[in-house]
Amino acid sequence: MTAIPLRPPRRLVDLTLDGEPVRAPEDSTLLDACRAAGKDIPTLCQGDTLTPKNACRVCVVEVAGARTLAPACSRRVEQGMEVRTDTERARHSRKVVLELLASSTDLSTTPRAAEWIEEYGAEPDRFGADAARVDEEPKVDNDLYVRDYDKCILCYKCVDACGDQWQNTFAIAVAGRGSDARISTEHDAPLTDSACVYCGNCIEVCPTGALSFKTEFDMRAAGAWDESAQTETTTVCAYCGVGCNLTLHVQDNEIVKVTSPHDNPVTHGNLCIKGRFGYQHVQNHAQNRD
Is-annotated flag, keyword Zinc (predicted)? Predict the structure, then answer.
């Protein structure tokens, strides 16, 4: 039997959050420390399975002695650090970021966006009717998932999941510069002509609903999507012996989408095309049995 080497204990550092003493592992981020202390810090581009990108800047906090606000999702804790999460400067920054995002993109399916806009007093309409918006029609070029870039905030999480952080397919990347920047396939080809393998891991990490299951997209369009009426059941994928965990989202006795637990040591939230989209045989079997 092979012995499993023990890791050295994680060193703890002392810091203060909003005047309260806190102890946190030295390799953790300010966002980790805030969440452990029960502080609700808004964030959009942060993902628990990806390296922070510092893209959305909604999670900024004020660090004593620092010239600029620090993104809590990537700034590591330090011994003696003094952090304030709810200062006027931090709140104003979050307010402006939310206003800019909501004025240019559709945040209607972004979890907690409306709550944060109200909390920070953001007024997206103050930029007027002429404010530049994405206003792009959803791309429906396959039967598995839809790309609605009108909801995209360019957080790059889908690019990272498709690229070197998980899938290594590199089917999508950032195209264009400045206000013309967008997520695109190579030469803006249809998804069916790209390198996409339809693993759907980009959907898993998308924080705004810009990428969604075709079933969810169609049900939302029909006004039938109701997360409050859905149940979630975690099981093991039956396609192979890897042991990937699946979470089945069921509404009206039908599977409407499949996700995977991010804390699962096998999948870390990732699946292949069969695991994420190959659930029709379950419903066909149930219908035939009925």
Answer: no
